[in-house]
């Protein structure tokens, strides 16, 4: 149960920060998305995001900074394994599973719920 509480609190705090940024600044949701992913990438590359992942699990890996962290982690691994080429292939390999799942489940939901455009 403790793991779920940690994940909920950390994931919730990340969402609260995003909501505050939307309410109190002129940043658009798209720009906040980019800031969060970039911040996750930088913190992941510096090894500063790993302790948060160890503490909160999915509460740190599912939100947007977690996506950036995954990109950084996969790129570092790929560079260590394949050298310079890993800079270009690491992020693709690290994100492929999540992107594929998003496309697949989005398609399934579109089939089930028959989406319509707003009028």
UniProtKB/TrEMBL annotation:
Domain of life: Bacteria
InterPro entries: Spore_V_AE (IPR014204), SpoVA (IPR005562)
Keyword Membrane applies: yes
Keyword terms, alphabetized: Membrane, Transmembrane, Transmembrane helix
Name of a matching Pfam family: SpoVAC_SpoVAEB
Statement: the UniProt record of this protein carries the keyword Oxidoreductase: no
Positions of transmembrane segments: 6-22, 29-49, 55-72, 84-113
Protein name per UniProt: Stage V sporulation protein AE
Species assigned in the record: Clostridium amylolyticum
Lineage: Bacteria, Bacillati, Bacillota, Clostridia, Eubacteriales
């Amino acid at each position: 149960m403790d793991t779920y509480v940690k994940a909920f609190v950390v994931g919730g705090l990340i969402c609260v920060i995003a909501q505050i940024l939307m309410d109190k600044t002129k940043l658009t949701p798209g720009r906040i998305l980019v800031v969060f992913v970039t911040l996750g990438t930088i913190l992941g590359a510096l090894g500063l995001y790993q302790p948060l992942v160890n503490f909160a699990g999915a509460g740190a890996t599912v939100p947007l900074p977690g996506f950036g962290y995954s990109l950084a982690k996969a790129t570092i691994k790929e560079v260590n394994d394949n050298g310079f080429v890993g800079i270009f292939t690491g992020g693709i390999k690290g994100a492929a599973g999540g992107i594929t799942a998003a496309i697949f489940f989005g398609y399934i939901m579109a089939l089930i719920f028959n989406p319509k455009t707003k009028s």
